[in-house]
Amino acid sequence: MVRTSLFLTVGILLASSTSWVQHAAAQQQQQCNGYAELCSRTYDKVAFATTHNAYAITPVGGLATNQVNNIAVQLKDGVRAFMLDAYNSPAGNPNEIQLCHGVCKLLDGGPLTATLQQIKTFMDANPNEVITILWENAENLKPAHFQAVYSAAGMSPYLHAQAKGAKAWPTLAQMIASKKRLVNFIDAGADASVPWLMAEYDFVFETPYMIPKGTAYPCTVDRPKDQRKQMYVLNHFISGVFNVGSTSIALPQPDAADQTNGPDLITHINSCQTTFKQIPNFVAVDFYQKGSLLESVAKVNKVTWNGKEATGSMNKSGGTGAGGPSGAGVNGGMNAAAGSILGAGKTAAGLLASVAGAVALVMSI
Description:
Layout: H1 2-29, E1 48-51, H2 71-77, E2 81-88, E3 97-101, E4 103-111, H3 112-125, E5 131-136, H4 143-152, H5 172-178, E6 182-186, E7 197-199, H6 200-203, E8 204-206, E9 211-212, E10 231-235, E11 238-244, E12 247-252, H7 257-260, H8 263-276, E13 282-285, H9 293-300, H10 345-364
Parallel strand pairs: 1-2, 1-13, 2-5, 5-6, 6-7, 8-10, 9-11, 10-13
Antiparallel strand pairs: 2-3, 3-4, 11-12
Helix pairs in contact: 2-3
């Protein structure tokens, strides 16, 4: 009897230990957007690395190019929110949307269907990731137009709808469990007919997006005018200006991006957190592979950065301090990023060709 009782006790202990180890392993493996600590956070309390004009990658070194890596690579690297611009399909296809910058003749990023397929492929393979798209509805497309393209791309099972006025967002873990983990905001044209395409300014405000090179990084409410919201976009990308007659064209500044997305980004984040007393939810940059975007966003989220470098990153900035309340003053300091849009010899030819194309485009309008 003693031997039998001993075997039973040992068996129970082993079974309990195995169960505990399995539970602990499951808990350890559970991550949301790459970090276990984010699983219990509500969506509105999380910062997301965001790419401005995420689709604007061609021509390389072109006048309107804002990124280098395509969206599939951006997702692999850890970018979780994407700014996209919607235009009518040049072919007039009602079931397609074109991703263009300014006008399609200046930069055509291709059909939305291709981009949604990249996002869907990633989401299918990575079930613990919450993704956001921030739409600029450049040609005032109807929500039904977006609905048609998303449905055709097979995105419907992933679409999260948040009721206007609802203050309680789900946690990332809840969104992942429900599979409703693709959030879509649009700056204009939303209506109740497509509830998942949410009016951005019901939930989000933005800091100014036009930041000329050599000026202060602002921590003010730009859109909607003087209206604070539950979340905000920290627009952090600088522009040079190219004048053609009375027309001014904003030029991205790739050669300044190490400084812009490094020390300047940290200063801007800290300044706006001090000013607004809330974290920036969407930290939006050009040329995200330069500087320290991913590390800075991890610090805003108060998680230990996983050390993963962006594809094409030449070096680690080593900057520290983002995410704390002790940042620079309200204006976030001056953006003193060195370098000209024409500074890198390897991109000069492409830039000059793009400038020539832009001049021809402006003259033809």
